[in-house]
Amino acid sequence: MRIQLLPSTFDKQGRATLEQRLTCFLIDEAVAVDAGSIALALTAEQREKVRDIIITHPHMDHIASLPIFIDDLYQTLERPIRIYATQIVIDLLERDIFN
Length: 99
Prior knowledge:
Shape: globular
Number of strands: 5
Radius of gyration: 13 Å
């Protein structure tokens, strides 16, 4: 199993910095845990593979770029992006983010 912490801040040249303000882990290039920086840090190849996202809780640093990730891929999706979370988190995402 390979777990990668996706970077969330970048310098002027586009290189990842040590600051970590958003949370997103990538497991085996296919599953994301949280989505703070998912739209910012995935490569084009990784974007094509990630279709399962586990959201641990709805704090902004864990969901910040989830809407951007989904919107960027929406027109080309052949299968849905599945979001896994507790029902409370799903309800909050539906009400406050994807309304």
